[in-house]
Amino acid sequence: MGDLEVKRLARGDEAVAAVLFAMMAAVFDEGSAPLSEEYVRKLLGTDSFWAMAAFDGADVVGGLTAHTLPMTRSPSSEVFIYDLAVREDHQRQGVATRLVDELRTGAARIGIYDVFVPADNEDAGALEFYRAQGADAVPVTFFTFTR
Questions:
Q1: 115-123: long-range contacts (C-beta < 8 A, 24 or more apart)?
Q2: Is the pLDDT of residue 12 over 80?
Q3: pTM of the predicted model, to two decimals?
Q4: HSE-up of 71 (CA within 13 Å, CB side)?
Q5: Which stretch of DSSP H or E encloses residue 40?
Q6: Does 144 map to a domain?
Q7: I want to staple 102 with a disulfide (CB 3.0 to 4.6 A). Which of 6, 83, 112, 123 is the partner?
Q8: In terms of Cα–Cα distance, which of 126, 107, 105, 19 is closest to 63?
Q9: Per-residue pLDDT for 120 more than 90?
């Protein structure tokens, strides 16, 4: 692997974001609906949305999406990592670690020090990864409402 570059995507990066989101869906083996350029532009123009892409040269090899959540118990925010994915041919090479580090650094620059992420209890790899990053596991049950 060449030099890894990590970048937070912003308006103007719609084409890269489309590649990133498609790569993430492929890693998770999930179907995905095509996103309009307008929708992606809106996402990338929202300060509370984080789309981080990892590049090996010009290739997108990993990425994460996260959301800044304003708190109501204090005048502060936390960042919620929603998705983190690395292409199979680049896994276990430090890509995910760099993505999380860059997100945490970027959040700290704007005064946000609390970052959290859910991981399925059955996903041993994710649990091992987040523990290796120094994260504390907190037992919680997520409930999902669907139509």
A1: 115/66, 115/78, 115/79, 115/80, 115/81, 116/78, 116/79, 116/80, 116/81, 117/80, 117/81, 117/84, 118/142
A2: yes
A3: 0.89
A4: 12
A5: helix 37-44
A6: no
A7: 6
A8: 19
A9: no
pLDDT band at 59 (very low <50, low <70, confident <90, very high): very high
Q: Is there a contact between 4 and 55 (Cβ–Cβ < 8 Å)?
A: yes
Residue 22 falls within a domain, yes or no? yes
Q: What's the number of domains the chain is made of?
A: 1
The domain that contains 19 carries what CATH number? 3.40.630.30
Contact assessment for residue 14 and residue 41, using Cβ atoms and an 8 Å cutoff:
yes
Is residue 39 helix, strand or coil? helix
* Residue spans of beta strands (DSSP E) within the chain: 4-8, 49-56, 59-70, 77-86, 115-116
pLDDT over 70 at 51, yes or no: yes
Categorize the per-residue pLDDT at 1 as very low, low, confident or very high, splitting at 50, 70 and 90: low
Range of the domain at 49: 4-132
